[in-house]
Design goal:
By secondary structure, the chain is an alpha/beta fold. Helices cover 28% and strands 28% of the residues.
Length: 257
């Protein structure tokens, strides 16, 4: 099954990093968050990616062009010109890097994938700036079972600040990064029927507005509720949180070997 990754936004809330690179290329543990996302999908057998490029998309192209050079030993015979890679096995991914326009909105980027999705009845979509330990096998089974056109993964957002529990002015407890107990939000990790492409008008369409609202009105959007780990990377603080989790050796989203 093909996976569309929306990787073309400006990432203005992470301007300290995105002034020089697109947000999906901001690194966690020495690898772009895009690499982490792709590994999550690959763990569940999703090996073909349609990366929707926009802002500074040439840097994403260069990353994949240099992928084997970065991850392998390289033998060069300068006299003959022979070049050989050895010492590592690259992942069996097929990566389509699709230019979708610098100003195109999320819905427009998805629509521009139509010819690359082809006749596949289903495809997946996610954002290029968030990781989770979502069980994609169960997500897909849930989608197939309900028979509607679209599934969004609903998550409980992590709180941005620590929580102090008080009783009569006395501190009874403190949680550094609690999870919000109420409410669900759009966590990405969509499964979509290709017919949803007909709900998108063009480049100016924001996927999270008119198309999703119409799907809701028609009873065609279902939510897969994920109670586990989910973390976006919208700010430097959130990048630091992810970096710390990776450095600890216990990153919850690292479900691959």
């Amino acid at each position: 099954m093909k996976t569309v990754i929306l990787a073309g936004g400006l990432g203005t809330r992470l301007a300290e990093e995105t002034g020089v690179r697109p947000k999906p290329m901001v690194e966690i543990g020495g690898q772009p968050i895009l690499w982490h996302i792709m590994n999550i999908y690959a763990h569940y057998g999703c090996m073909e990616f349609l990366v929707a490029l926009g802002y500074k998309g040439e840097l994403i192209k260069q990353y994949f062009l240099d992928f084997r050079t970065r991850t392998s030993h390289l033998y060069l015979d300068l006299a003959s010109g022979e070049t050989r890679f050895h010492g590592s096995v690259p992942p069996p991914w097929k990566v389509h890097l699709i230019e979708t326009g610098a100003q195109t909105m999320t819905g427009g980027r998805i629509l521009r994938m139509r010819e690359h999705i082809g006749d596949d009845p289903l495809f997946m979509v996610t954002y290029g700036d968030g990781v989770a330990d979502v069980d994609l096998g169960r997500l897909l089974a849930f989608h197939r079972a309900h028979g509607k056109l679209a599934t969004v993964t609903a998550v409980r957002p992590p709180a941005r600040f620590g929580d102090i529990r008080l009783q009569d002015g006395r501190v009874m407890g403190f949680a550094e990064k609690p999870q919000v107990g109420e409410g669900w939000i759009n966590g990405g990790f969509f499964v979509l029927d290709r017919r949803v492409l007909d709900y998108i008008d063009g480049d100016a369409t924001i996927w999270e507005r008119e198309p999703m609202e119409r799907l809701v009105a028609e009873g065609q959007l279902m939510a897969y509720c994920h109670e586990g780990f989910w973390q976006p990377m919208d700010t430097i603080r959130e990048r630091t949180v992810l970096e710390g989790l990776w450095a600890s050796g216990n990153a919850p989203w690292k479900i691959w070997d």
